[in-house]
């Protein structure tokens, strides 16, 4: 890939993101929408496409999508309808998916994304509701494809962006933003590896300065944020090379192969489905009243952007820290609980940023799986603030707490880490150090005040780290100066 191509061409990217909603039941059938159950146990005649069954819309599906629409600055249609998207596939017994076509419930929104040195607003064309299909399983029987219909009819929303993205990095930042919003709203767990968030990427390139878009391809099958970024990058280069060598991009769907780190064509425009959309006759239109809108607005949680600004103002956080801590709603909640219980937001921030995040990284877990409760961590912070333990002891106790239910104080006692603040004991210690180090005492008296560190160090060494360094400092300066 020559850099000249980079200078001459610009990429245009639009993403279609599917988010699996966390409703208890399916989109149009009274059966649980849960995952990981034995195949074909979460099905009703409706999911099986039996004739004579009638769908009924899950009210939470409508509420969840409106939340998403409001959080992404969309207009909410007062009236929208469902449509049938018809195609034949073994995991789709009805022969159609219920979706929305001409009148999606949310339209014309935007999200702001942040990149290293600039911000950008990305338009959302629409967000609509649909149901998922079942799952074909190809790797459990050597001769046959098996079908599991537990997923058939589970609720999805599809979030379609405008072709506003220009680089793989912007696409990554956009996806991260969408994930953050669905998690803050608690409408989807946002896990791309497990398929609760899925993304198709539409990619085209055009000579810089040209307004007209180039022919696009659609990339599928990327199962992580990094793969989306990589697949887009690969596709941009592939298209530029093709054009530069005199070829032409054909409109097609391409599958990303993670092991090979390249994509291959799946179907071209000629083979594309004609879904023969038509209005779903079995479902009434969705009517959103202004009362309903107001009610849902009132339920919206504080979103990441707002929370980040509040943290900067309320706790004096730097922007970098505020961004890190609000990245996940649950991490932000965790921090706020620790700040509240300990009464010390600064210390809480330090421990969460340095210790808690370190453990989450090391163990590859989310804050929800972290073993130390905010209350327990606050007790540890208090021990330190009250000078009952020093910072190295604090770290030792923190590590011990990861696998223990005991309180910080009990662990400190058990491990003999409580600082000694007993004046009599410290007085004796300090006198001894002064007596044993006449040279240093002399130099200190002559003005070499940096030697305080030496005296405190001696005290810590002699007491095996348990002397209260503040009290030692006070005593030494009193004895040598006073
Ligand atoms: P379809 O239903 O065939 O997938 P849409 O018009 O709904 O087509 O567009 C799907 C996505 O493709 C949208 O996110 C849109 O922004 C994006 N898109 C449209 N045209 C282009 C293009 N020329 N290059 C890149 N992305 C595009
Ligand atoms: Mg598409």
Quick structural gist:
With 482 residues, this protein is of the alpha+beta class. Helices cover 41% and strands 19% of the residues. The chain is built from 16 helices and 16 strands.
Description:
This protein is an alpha+beta fold and 482 residues long. The chain folds into three domains: 3-291, no CATH class; 302-414, no CATH class; 423-481, Orthogonal Bundle (Arc Repressor Mutant, subunit A). Helices cover 41% and strands 19% of the residues. Strands 2-6-7-10-1-11-12-13-14 form a nine-stranded mixed sheet. Strands 5-4-15 form a three-stranded antiparallel sheet, with no helix packed on it. Helix 6 (304-315) packs across helix 7. The protein binds adenosine-5'-diphosphate and magnesium ion (MG).
How do the helices and strands line up, and which of them pair or pack?
Blueprint lengths: L2 H6 E12 L38 H13 L3 E2 L2 E2 L2 E4 L9 E4 L6 E9 L4 E13 L3 E3 L8 E3 L6 E7 L6 H18 L11 E11 L9 E4 L4 H20 L7 E6 L4 E7 L9 E2 L6 E2 L2 H10 L4 H12 L3 H8 L2 H14 L2 H19 L10 H12 L5 H11 L6 H7 L8 H14 L1 H8 L6 H11 L6 H13 L1
Parallel strand pairs: 12-13
Antiparallel strand pairs: 1-10, 1-11, 2-6, 3-16, 4-5, 4-15, 6-7, 7-10, 8-9, 11-12, 13-14
Helix pairs in contact: 3-4, 6-7, 8-9, 8-10, 10-11, 13-15, 13-16, 15-16
This protein binds adenosine-5'-diphosphate (ADP) and magnesium ion (MG).
Magnesium ion binds next to loops.
Q: What would you report as the Rg, rounded to the nearest angstrom?
A: 30 Å
Roughly what percent helix? 40-55%
Low-confidence parts lasting 5 or more residues at pLDDT below 50?
1-5
| Residue fraction in strands | 15-25%
